[in-house]
Amino acid sequence: MKGSATIRHLLELIAAIDRRVPHIQRAGEASIARDAAALKARALTRLKELEDDAQADADPSAGPVSRRVS
Predict the structure, then answer these.
(1) In this predicted structure, what is the pLDDT of residue 70?
(2) Would you tell me which of 34, 57, 65, 70 could form a disulfide with 52, CB atoms 3.0–4.6 Å apart?
């Protein structure tokens, strides 16, 4: 999958997670909410990596991009 397509899919995933309304009364909802938060965090991390790579590809004179863990 191309980088731009992956970025688009990650943005769609993040938006879908953000739209989800937790239903606390349902069994297992706390676990689902935790899993969704973890998935969103992983998607945001990957999105940042892809954006950094795209920026480095667009401007090779900028040198290597440092990988910071937030």
Answers:
(1) 42
(2) 65
